[in-house]
Amino acid sequence: QTVVTQEPSLTVSPGGTVTLTCAANTGAVTSGYYPNWFQQKPGQAPRALIYSTSNKHSWTPARFSGSLLGGKAVLTLSGVQPEDEAEYYCLLYYGGDQTFGGGTKLTVL
Amino acid sequence: QVQLVQSGAEVKKPGASVKVSCKASGYTFTSYAVHWVRQAPGQRLEWMGWINAGNGNAKYSQKCQGRVTITRDTSANTAYMEVSSLRSEDTAIYYCARGDSRTYIDYWGQGTPVTVSS
Fold it and tell me: Which of the residues B57, B68, B102 would you substitute to probe the A interface, choosing the one with the greatest number of A C-beta atoms within 10 Å?
């Protein structure tokens, strides 16, 4: 069974840049894992941000971007806003199953 | 606009079953997949499975195989997710979401809280 690992928590200053990563115990994450990224705020349903590594949904703010780096999927937030404080989850496809990471709690301070 | 509206909160006893519905609107229901995801209190999101709303084929996670059944009614544009032999560990918010088989999930339902308690 695939285990997907994310940083448990990160802190960033308003206006700064932060990178969240998503790794798999099956090996290097490639485009074939179709990484998705979601944002979830307390008491709310998740909101989709990025799909298939780097594609944005129509509602995704420009400051969010996705990529692959060093065998991991990466979500980069540039020019962080206070409203970006949330939990971020990645989702990977592998062997017919999909698996979420443990989530990264992003604090904007 | 695309909307997924789920049924209301449920309270069940251990050993019972629960069936959650997800009514879709604003798009062609049979052209997309519906995924089911749950989140236990304070825990990570857990992908449970998905159904091809066009042909009705469903795929389940290894953990959910055997106790979870996902179906759909194309005449009602509604997907369903049933969990049988409920345990306290099944207490969670259950979400449906639209997507395809592997590359993306985009729109989400509002979530359905299910509490399993004696």
Answer: B102
